[in-house]
Amino acid sequence: MRYYHTTNAAESILVAGFRDNSGGQGQQGITLTGVFVSEQPLDGDESVAGEEVLEVDLPDDLDLDHYRLIEDGKHYKRWCIPARL
Asked: Residue 2 and residue 4: Cα distance in Å, rounded?
Protein backbone atom coordinates (compact mmCIF):
# COMPACT_ATOMS: atom_id res chain seq x y z
CA MET A 1 0.00 0.00 0.00
CA ARG A 2 1.18 3.55 -0.68
CA TYR A 3 1.62 6.12 2.08
CA TYR A 4 3.02 9.66 2.10
CA HIS A 5 5.57 11.39 4.32
CA THR A 6 5.98 15.19 4.27
CA THR A 7 9.47 16.43 5.10
CA ASN A 8 12.24 18.94 4.48
CA ALA A 9 14.83 16.13 4.47
CA ALA A 10 13.84 14.00 1.46
CA GLU A 11 17.38 13.73 0.08
CA SER A 12 18.78 12.63 3.45
CA ILE A 13 16.02 10.05 3.87
CA LEU A 14 16.62 8.67 0.38
CA VAL A 15 20.34 8.29 1.15
CA ALA A 16 20.27 7.07 4.77
CA GLY A 17 16.71 5.83 5.25
CA PHE A 18 14.06 6.90 7.73
CA ARG A 19 14.92 7.64 11.37
CA ASP A 20 12.46 7.77 14.22
CA ASN A 21 11.35 11.30 15.04
CA SER A 22 9.41 12.61 18.03
CA GLY A 23 6.45 14.91 17.77
CA GLY A 24 3.47 16.09 19.76
CA GLN A 25 0.01 14.78 19.03
CA GLY A 26 -3.11 16.81 19.58
CA GLN A 27 -4.23 18.66 22.64
CA GLN A 28 -3.40 15.77 24.94
CA GLY A 29 0.29 16.72 24.76
CA ILE A 30 1.32 13.15 23.99
CA THR A 31 4.75 12.70 22.39
CA LEU A 32 4.95 10.01 19.71
CA THR A 33 8.13 8.56 18.25
CA GLY A 34 8.35 7.09 14.77
CA VAL A 35 7.77 8.13 11.17
CA PHE A 36 4.53 9.96 10.47
CA VAL A 37 2.83 8.81 7.27
CA SER A 38 -0.60 9.46 5.81
CA GLU A 39 -2.93 7.99 3.21
CA GLN A 40 -2.64 11.15 1.10
CA PRO A 41 -0.05 13.91 0.66
CA LEU A 42 -0.39 16.53 3.42
CA ASP A 43 0.81 20.11 3.61
CA GLY A 44 0.93 22.98 6.10
CA ASP A 45 -2.88 23.16 6.18
CA GLU A 46 -2.80 19.81 8.00
CA SER A 47 -0.15 20.96 10.53
CA VAL A 48 2.76 19.07 9.01
CA ALA A 49 6.18 20.58 8.42
CA GLY A 50 7.96 20.28 5.11
CA GLU A 51 7.69 21.06 1.46
CA GLU A 52 8.74 17.69 0.05
CA VAL A 53 6.54 14.61 -0.06
CA LEU A 54 7.90 11.08 -0.28
CA GLU A 55 5.79 8.16 -1.46
CA VAL A 56 6.33 5.16 0.79
CA ASP A 57 5.30 1.73 -0.46
CA LEU A 58 4.75 -0.87 2.26
CA PRO A 59 3.58 -4.47 1.80
CA ASP A 60 -0.20 -4.90 1.82
CA ASP A 61 0.08 -7.64 4.44
CA LEU A 62 1.86 -5.34 6.93
CA ASP A 63 -0.66 -4.63 9.72
CA LEU A 64 -0.39 -0.96 10.74
CA ASP A 65 -3.63 -0.80 12.76
CA HIS A 66 -1.69 -0.54 16.03
CA TYR A 67 0.11 2.58 14.75
CA ARG A 68 -2.92 4.45 13.41
CA LEU A 69 -3.62 7.85 14.93
CA ILE A 70 -7.28 8.42 15.73
CA GLU A 71 -7.95 12.10 15.06
CA ASP A 72 -11.50 13.42 15.22
CA GLY A 73 -12.56 15.71 12.40
CA LYS A 74 -9.70 14.83 10.05
CA HIS A 75 -10.51 13.96 6.43
CA TYR A 76 -7.44 11.72 6.15
CA LYS A 77 -5.76 8.89 8.08
CA ARG A 78 -2.29 9.06 9.65
CA TRP A 79 0.05 6.59 11.30
CA CYS A 80 3.19 6.90 13.41
CA ILE A 81 5.20 3.79 12.54
CA PRO A 82 8.67 2.69 13.69
CA ALA A 83 11.38 3.60 11.17
CA ARG A 84 12.58 -0.02 11.11
CA LEU A 85 9.38 -0.98 9.27
From this structure: 7
Helix H, strand E, coil C: the string for the chain is CEEEEEECCHHHHHHHCCCCEEEEECCCCEEEEEEEEECCCCCHHHCCCCCEEEEEECCCCCCCHHHEECCCCCCCCEEEECCCC
The residue among 6, 7, 17 whose CA lies nearest residue 85 is 17
- Between the alpha carbon of residue 28 and those of residues 1, 19, 23, 83, the distances in Å are 30, 24, 12, 24
pLDDT band at 10 (very low <50, low <70, confident <90, very high): very high
Instruction: Specify the amino acid at residue 49.
Output: A
For residues 78 and 36, the answer to whether their CB atoms sit within 8 Å is yes
Mean pLDDT of the chain: 89
